[in-house]
Amino acid sequence: MTASAQATRRWPWPVAVLFWLAFSAFLLAGKAGPVSQLVLPDADDYVRLVQVEQWLDGGGFRDVGLPRLDPPAGVVMHWSRLPDLPIAAVILAVEPFSDRQTAVTAALLVVPALYMLGFLLLVTAISARLFGPGPALLAPLLAIFAVPAIGAFMPGRIDHHNIQVLLALVMLDAATRLYAGQGRRWAIVMGAAGGLAIAIGAEALPQILACYAALGLGWILGRPAMLRAGLLMSTTLAATASGILVLAVARNSYFAAACDSLSLVYVVATGLAAAVWAILWALDRFLTTAAARALVAAVLAAGALAILLAAYPACAGGPYGALPQELKESWLASVDEAQSALHLARKDMTRLNIHLLLPVIALVGLSLGAWRHRDNPVWLPLLVFTGVTLAIAILQIRATTAANAIAIIGAVHAYAALYDGVRRRARALPHLAASAVVIALLPLSIFAATGGLSERAAQTERRAVACGLPQSLAVLDTLPPGAVMAPANLGAIILAHTRHAVFAAHYHRDVDGLLAAQRVFEAASPDVALAEIRRKKADYVVVCLGKGPYGLKAPNADSFAGSLVAGAAPSWLSRVPDDKLEIFRVMP
């Protein structure tokens, strides 16, 4: 591992740019057409677009409510306005020279592409600084093969996960620079990136924890500079989060106790963390052994956590703590990204491979490297960031996006070491053959060998013929605007492609809407379904009878959904002719 100025100057940024140009061209060839028709990769992208356009059409900057989700009250989303800024900027720049749809398409293509360029440049630059320009050539290749991470940068991906990946890499870069003795300013960079990340979404918590752990462990093991860096980092993080709360959150929500988004809870939490670092700094001269430092740090951290949970007991259950038990059992249990790796392993081992294989390879490679280079402290933050994010990803699959992005750095070392090992043990082996051995062991190659790619292709084909395509909603959009009772998997696309309101979409704050849809479609009789439909004042009932991500999920034959599938709609529903969806008007 090297951190020489020469290696830093020679980092192969042109390779990263070439990878970006080639991969972007490949993606645009297949994705530009669908994206121009507003066929987006994920429900979150549809709702993010709805939120951006709502703001551009006169909504308030601090107002992240969706009035068309579960009307009449609407749902205040847990999302930050900050990721909307670059999307809105592109739309505003293009719209004067075209129409809104063209401007939106430009934003859907340009914003993720620019984020991807930043991603490839970051992993290449960090790898070059740590391991040298030669091994760093692997970084963009591994980045493209890190499916959970690179997936956040696909055309149309405008949700906030791509920004959080970039901020996670900035935090890791700053941590390694601090261990390399490059100045305390990197503590400020780390804290500012952490504060911005936590303001964007609670998914950044694993990386924030890794920041605290990396600097705290360094101090415990006898590096006093890490204590000063930790104090500066934690103070900057708390100040950044507090400042964004004041600037970007609705004024009437300043003192709200939200566990799933930037709120007073996170300001108190980051403030308590800064207080812990300040107390450790004050006590440092009395703590002369690693054991004493570890004990005091653990006691203070536990005390801060106890104070936080005593002040906000609802947050003990995490971001989903306020969700009713009924929804936890019936809805949350079916959301794959909220489940553990063990849950996913029972369902789909190939998906588990692609989610966790690269972080495991990186952790093993870094562990071996740290053992061989025990005198170089820069290995410690790499191990901590990789280990912490992998552990959280095992507990909840949604964390694999950042875990895979961070793992790229460790995997660069692992595969470079593998290449060197193959060459040393078989000196007659040509470079090309040694490279083939390494490529054969890349995660995407292993994934393909286990049948994962063919399954992904089949899933993509099923999605393409599912009811969620925009043209499938054409008839629905011609009807007078009203409130639609539909399964939650149709909610986001109805919001994005029609003028209608919907009651249910896959968002944990949409509690009453989710419960209403569940009670309607699982009702034991049409009369029970009608009572709930009347309570919510729905104008239409819409279902997709086809297979795929937007279809009804194998409804019970005795349920209301089952009767719709069987073609036995009750008399109080009037069918609207459509060959794509089953659309019914609710009769007075």
Short description:
Among the domains are: 336-374 and 388-464, no CATH class; 470-586, 3-Layer(aba) Sandwich (Rossmann fold).
Note the main sheet.
Answer: 5 strands, mixed
Q: Give the N-terminus to C-terminus distance in angstroms.
A: 73 Å
- Total DSSP E strands: 7
What best-fitting shape do the alpha-carbon axes yield? globular
Enumerate how many helices there are, as a single number. Answer: 27
Helical fraction equals 55-70%
Into which percentage range does the β-strand content fall? under 5%
Describe the overall structure:
The chain is mainly alpha-helical. Among the domains are: 336-374 and 388-464, no CATH class; 470-586, Rossmann fold (3-Layer(aba) Sandwich). The protein has helices at 5-9, 13-36, 43-56, 84-94, 100-131, 133-136, 138-145, 147-150, 161-179, 185-200, 205-220, 224-248, 264-283, 290-311, 325-330, 341-347, 349-372, 379-395, 400-425, 431-440, 443-449, 452-464, 474-478, 488-497, 511-521, 526-536, 560-565; strands at residues 65-66, 75-76, 483-485, 501-502, 540-543, 573-576, 582-586. The strands form 2 sheets. The protein has a 5-stranded mixed beta sheet. Helix 2 (13-36) packs parallel to helix 7 (138-145) and helix 3 (43-56) packs across helix 4 (84-94). The longest helix is centred in the first third of the chain and has 32 residues, at 100-131. The N and C termini lie far apart (73 Å).
